[in-house]
Amino acid sequence: MAEKLAENLYTIPVPLPGNPLKNLNVYLLAGERNLLIDTGFHLDACRDALLAGLRELRVDMDRTDIFLTHLHSDHTGLAPDIAGPNTRIFIGEKDLSHMPGSHSDFSWADSDRRFAAEGFPWPLLRELVERNPAQGLSPVPYDDYIPVSDGQVFSYGGHRFQAIWTPGHTPGHMILWEEETGICILGDHVLFDITPNVTRWHGVTDSLGDYLHALEQVRTLPVTLPLPAHRAVHAAFQDRCDALIAHHGRRCREVLRILRDGGSMTAWNIASGMTWRIRARNWAEFPTPQKWFAVGEAMAHLDHLIALGLVARQPSKPFVTYHLSQEGIHGIDSLPGV
Ligand SMILES: [Zn+2]
Question: What CATH number is attached to the domain comprising 84?
Answer without folding.
Answer: 3.60.15.10
